[in-house]
Amino acid sequence: MDFAIDISGFVAVYIFMLAGFAGWVIIGHVPAILHTPLMSGSNFVHGIVVVGGIFALLNASSLQQQVFGFLAVLLGAGNAAGGYAVTDRMLAMFQLGGASKPKLAHARAHRTKTS
Amino acid sequence: MLTTYAQFAIGVVDLAAAILFLYGLQRMSSPVTAPSGIKVAGIGMAVAVVASFLYIFSVDDAAKPFLVMNIALALIALAIGGGIAWVAGKRVAMTAMPQMVAIYNGLGGGAAGAIAAVELYGSKTHGLTQLGVTLLGALIGAVSLSGSLIAWGKLDGILNHPLRFKGQRWVNALIVLATLVIGGGILFLASGGAIAQVGVAGMITTFFVLALILGIALTLPIGGADMPVVISVYNAFTGLAVGLEGFVLQNPALMIAGMVVGAAGMLLTLLMAQAMNRSIANVLFTNFGDAPAQKQGAIEGELKPTQAGDAGIAMRYAAKVIIIPGYGLAVAQGQQKLYEFVKLLQAGGVDVKFAIHPVAGRMPGQMDVLLAEAGVPYDMIFQLEDINADFATTDIALVIGANDVVNPAARSDKTSPIFGMPILNADKAKQVFVVKRGEGKGYAGIVNTLFYGDNCNMVYGDAQAVLIKMIEAVRGLGLPAAA
């Protein structure tokens, strides 16, 4: 059996369309109070680019490709690690914050009107 | 055989990672589950990175002699890049968070651009579609990198003034055009099968340089007050670039994660622009704050300074106080002292609420995070639409380090660049105290007519220092706590 992945033509467009829709729907329900952590969190998620960087670097076959591949992994790792550290710190504060009971009611009050 | 197992393992792990990312983001959409959401997404990231080393079983034949070296390079890059960013992310002050998000976002865009560079310089793309997508991802990633770095510079105060000149839009349009022409040229040469031809490498380099210049040129003229929106746009850009490069590398996890962020970032940008009652195009292409400067003579009244202690005591005797925090509070790290002062007022039976403007601070929700850090309970914090009606029945509105979000000109002055932006109606309170470092204008560079109102007094000084004085003054009264 062959597990090589081959995405071409409309299959790619479908993946992009469904993923885009998923992102739109998920974020649409986020209360304003979480906008900053969420921007930071989605910033962390695109740190997955580091995986692409590792793939490119492992397949590098010249000095030039190695330099750019190294750069890709370096920057991608920075994106992922930094994004996680910052987001985790921000969200940890929400755990400590104040009384636990009004949390839910307040979260509801914070819901932004999405268009 | 080994190759097949490796491919199967990578496929399974990447699928799991994609699911964990989506589930993590979903959990992040509620304050209760949010802290676990980032951990879920983090697990997805960790397993995807570990599994990506299974690619060593299926590298190109051309790369096999370099394999050991490449593995070592990958581990070094992971350690250095990840290590530095981790330590910086853990150590940075909460107030510097927006800058950090900007810079990490730029790194992601740069990584997408670097992947495109490997593919382009190495002539690794197959067919015109892949080449075109690679170029598009390279363009977006490079713009995101240089643009985010400029945004970081502006937020960090390194770049203080927006750079604007006549005909700037034409220059920018010219750069866009030149970039597209070069990109089209590369595609044209490739369609003739001449991708390896001498000169193409030079064109690729020119393409990257132009894209980087474009990011700088687009961001420089935008005022610092609009940086949250700009970062959000670039966040979406980086997501898009990552998704496109994911297609080139035939990696569905990258495609999904990138596109989810691209769409989410766009929606987040829309929500932010909405809160300012402006369109995204208006934010990005209008020279905000550049409107004809108001003449000082046009403003009635004068600034009336008062002592911090007097203001503090006045609030102790008030029945109802609403506090409007802004970026100045974050800069002064005054949130702990502010809550200490508020607790003192509450002990005296004063009804205290916090009012948060959607774009207060440098990122949406930054004030919520700041107050949460100080331990202020959620139920004391109110958003604009929930509290604006309360100002009319409020004795004292205390504005700390906020400026443009309480400027009544947004309601009344059609010539003001912020006209139409929803504001907190602090001017409707019986008395307004404004804590401010000096007489300077706000971030948007607009005169605030609230400060000149009859019911407004200015308390000059660093927010934290002022709050300490207020606390001392109220304690000095020696009043008993209310029953």
Can you offer a commentary on this structure?
The complex is a heterodimer of chains A (115) and B (483). By secondary structure, chain A is an all-alpha fold. Chain A has helices spanning 10-28, 35-45, 49-58, 63-96, 102-109. In chain A, helix 2 packs antiparallel against helix 4 (63-96) and helix 3 packs antiparallel against helix 4. The longest helix of chain A has 34 residues, at 63-96. Mean pLDDT of chain A is 80; it is low at 96-115. Chain B is elongated and about 80 Å long. By secondary structure, chain B is an alpha/beta fold. Chain B has 2 domains: 2-285, no CATH class; 308-475, TPP-binding domain (Rossmann fold, 3-Layer(aba) Sandwich). In chain B, helix 14 links the parallel strand 2 (351-356) and strand 3. Chain B has a 6-stranded parallel sheet with strand order 3-2-1-4-5-6. Chain B has 17 helices and 6 strands. At the A-B interface, helix 1, helix 2, helix 3, helix 4 and helix 5 of A face helix 1, helix 2, helix 3, helix 4 and helix 8 of B.
Oligomer: heterodimer
Q: Treating each run of at least 4 consecutive H or I residues as one helix, how many helices of chain B?
A: 17
The biggest beta sheet of chain B is recorded as:
6 strands, parallel
Tell me the strand percentage band of chain B.
5-15%
Q: How many structural domains can be distinguished in the coordinates of chain B?
A: 2
N-to-C SSE string of chain B, H for helix and E for strand: HHHHHHHHHHHEHHEHEHEHEEH
Most extensive interface: A-B, 101 and 132 residues
Range of helix content of chain A: over 70%
Give the overall pLDDT of chain A as a whole number: 80
* Class based on secondary structure composition and strand pairing of chain B: alpha/beta
Task: Count the E strands of chain A.
Answer: 0
Strand line-up of the largest beta sheet of chain B: 3-2-1-4-5-6
Principal-axis shape of chain A: flat
Q: What is the overall shape of chain B? A: elongated
Distance between the termini of chain A: 47 Å
Structural class of chain A: mainly alpha
Q: Describe the largest sheet of chain A.
A: none
